[in-house]
Amino acid sequence: MLRHPTISSAIIGASRPHQIEENVKAVDIVLTQDVLGEIESILEEVKDFAPLR
What is the DSSP string of 20-52? Predict the structure, then answer.
């Protein structure tokens, strides 16, 4: 989400402290261009199936 230039922040939700701890671990994850491309490809495929809002 943060790769998009119009997004300035991502708000995560948690109802328990351990959920926050797990979410914070993601800050150290670096996704390669190959992985990002695969994610975009998958999202493009399912975009047509998402209900319009």
Answer: HHHHHHGGG----HHHHHHHHHHHHHHHTTSPP
